[in-house]
Specification:
With 291 residues, this protein is α/β, with parallel strands linked by helices. It is built from twelve helices and twelve strands.
């Protein structure tokens, strides 16, 4: 048995009852359940629809995401999340680079790295090198003044943790950011790269080895073994090329507002919903949310 979930941005409810019923009838599905009126609905189907991606594409023009997945085991025991442009709305290194006066240049490198056009480790070293001499105190100011949480993140963490899930923040960014974001959102643990500093200024170097694509897969393996979980019990979420390893390894890999090259390789693509989409596709209704 499979579950088809239709959802949209909670800030702009655009899910029409007639559209849900029309698709349910076309696919011969069971009764539709509204998880959140105007925002999210689901219904069961006996087999994976052959025209799933064509229908998915059709719904994109209406601002609606469509996810079809196996019903069994869809509620997960672990959340493994990227940070930049996933749990927060910014790329931390771009914000630091802006403070250092090289924002546009670094942002261009970041875009290419996240699209998989550049080797992640080399691109990170190059970008960090441009931060040399930046006062360490700038980091706290950037976190305070520039960093905002991705909508739905606090509810996602609170709800999954209230239902017994473990949450890990695994970023190709920096521990100076992940430690504070993890604490703010309630992650159980966090991993990232370490910016090196001397005399309260960044040296332009990052501690080796660099946490990149493989390190995120390694984190998934290490944490699941420690907790006695399987890959199928993990929901991973990210947006960049360095997230693809963990997204494809996890039982549910969610490409959230992801780069096209990333979304193309993932079965769960959220382009319109916020992070609460990760709750809806697990079958949580809005009244189940912990705020």
């Amino acid at each position: 048995m499979f579950i088809a979930t239709l959802l949209t941005n909670p800030q702009r409810p655009a899910l029409d009852r007639a559209a849900v019923e029309s698709l349910r009838n076309a696919w011969g599905g069971g009764d539709a359940i509204w998880l959140d009126p105007g925002v999210a609905a689901e219904f069961p189907v006996e087999a994976m629809p052959e025209n799933r991606w064509q229908v998915w594409q059709d719904f994109q023009s209406f601002g609606v995401d469509l996810v079809v997945q196996r019903a069994e085991g869809r509620r997960k025991k672990m959340l493994l999340a990227d940070m930049d442009s996933t749990m927060i709305e910014q790329e931390c290194i771009d914000e630091l680079a802006d403070e250092a006066g090289v924002g546009a240049h670094v942002a261009g490198i970041t875009r290419r790295a996240m699209n998989g056009e550049l080797d992640f480790e080399s691109a990170l070293r190059e970008r960090v090198g441009l931060l040399k001499g930046l006062p360490v105190a700038v980091i706290d100011r950037v976190i305070r003044d520039r960093i905002t949480l991705m909508p739905g993140g606090p509810v996602l963490l609170a709800t999954m943790k209230a239902n017994g899930a473990h949450a890990a923040l695994v970023s190709g960014g920096f521990t100076a950011f992940t430690a504070k974001i993890a604490a703010r959102l309630g992650f159980d643990e966090n991993r990232a790269n370490t910016l090196l500093a001397e005399d309260r200024k960044l040296t332009g170097q990052v501690a080796e080895p660099i946490l990149g694509k493989q390190a995120k897969v390694d984190a998934l393996e290490e944490i699941t073994v420690r907790l006695g979980l399987t890959d199928d019990q993990v929901m991973a979420v990210g947006d960049g090329a360095n997230d693809l390893g963990m997204l494809k390894r996890a039982g549910a890999g969610v490409a959230l507002h992801a780069k096209p090259v990333v979304a193309a390789e993932c079965d769960i693509r959220i382009n319109h919903g916020d992070l609460t989409a990760l709750l809806y596709i697990q079958g949580y209704a809005v009244e189940d949310f912990v705020r």
